[in-house]
Amino acid sequence: xxxxxxxxxxxxxxxxxxxxxxxxxxxAVAAVADHVLSRNSRPTLLIGHDTRxxxxxxxxxxxxxLGQRGVAVLLCDAPAPTPAIAYEIRRRxxxxxxxxxxxxxxxxxxxxxxxxxxxxxxxxxxTKDIEARAAKLAEPxxxxxxxxxxxxxxxxxxxxxxxxxxHFDSIRKAKLPIVYDALHGCGAGYLDRALAERDIPSHTIxxxxxxLFDGTGPDVVxxxxxxxxxxxxxxxxxxGLATDGDADRFGILDADGAWFQPNHILAxxxxxxxATRGWAPSNGNALPAARSVATSHLMDAVAKSHGTTVYQTPxxxxxxxxxxxxxxxxxxxxxxxxxxIRGHVPEKDGILACLLVAEMVAARRASLGEQLRDLFRRVxxxxxxxxxxxxxxxxxxxxxxxxLKGDFGKFLGRRVRHADRTxxxxxxxEDGSWVLMRLSGTEPLLxxxxxxxxxxASRQLGEQTRAWIFGAVAGGNAA
Length: 479
Fold this sequence. Notes:
Shape: globular
Structural class: alpha/beta
Number of helices: 15
CATH architecture of the largest domain: 3-Layer(aba) Sandwich
Number of domains: 4
Strand order of the largest sheet: 1-5-4-2-3-6
Number of strands: 21
Helix content: 25-40%
CATH topology of the largest domain: Alpha-D-Glucose-1,6-Bisphosphate, Chain A, domain 3
CATH class of the largest domain: Alpha Beta
């Protein structure tokens, strides 16, 4: 029996040759085709892919299935970043795109993202329809791609769009030394080219294709950026930039080599954009921001300092994308290093995020560490978020899910000021600290997020929560 096609937070992901097989890909693509045909009798879809093993072959398989079902196809002529694919959907007014990528996941994984006509990730009602259709389908027979398959480049128009969103002149005038790590992913030939075309010196590493991603995976977490740190020191750069496998997430190193939390980058950029883009006029009508429930409340403090507020969403950029699409926010972001801004695609853009960080460092002539300390001073407090990933046995996971359904007047001896079930269980305490426990939508993990006024307090809260989950601490749902 074929494995079920299940979409998580950002598409369907599975291990290559286990559940992510050509047969299951044909079935998933057929379900997508039937979905778009139910809305438009003559749809056109873009097919993109990243640099992973068998990406091109999966793309051609998808083109064959779509052609069989009467869906017109445009095929990206090279690995393409997710944000560039999103922009091309909108520019060409297409019915959507199928993108073969597992984003930041390790090399054994592959994935399929479906984006709708707005360029953003498909909403749950769409993915549920696709899942239901896939469950009823027999595996389509292998076939050849349609004759005259049209291949297109998405690069030039996307790079042109970046020129309207980023103040490249500020970077060039500051003569800012930059190093960029593509992590063997799709950002190569995009972020570095955006700088080179504007005569901004930079040094790029890991721009070649490596389907094993150095054996570590194309994630922008600190542990994967040791090569970027070496390059930053070698070239005496003022900032290190990195993008993940499909270039929808960003990683940042400060001038001293310190890895910078995405949470802090989001708040700094929100404050910077309000000050430089005219989105915080003197009459006090500053544009709000949006963050996922797992993201730092430093964004709320920044919004408050500008006389505005923040939208809170479930985890998954599709919810933030809706607010971008309806022009309700200046910036939307997630702690997992996803960001987009007003007037851009309703999809994460790691390339744009990196370039905006470079612009901010250049314009403010201060390191990120200096800027963060100044921001803490201006908002009147410090915010130090932390995330812990827990691998749970089925028994512990089932027990934890059941325990989280209880009423929490106190947790770990702390009085709970507010319990939030937007996504998982978030408990906010009287001193402003908080903890969130939720199952991952992309990996078999329970994620624990904490935030407090010091790094040590946040770490302690995380460790105490870990102990509670594994049954070593009592007092969770005391009245």
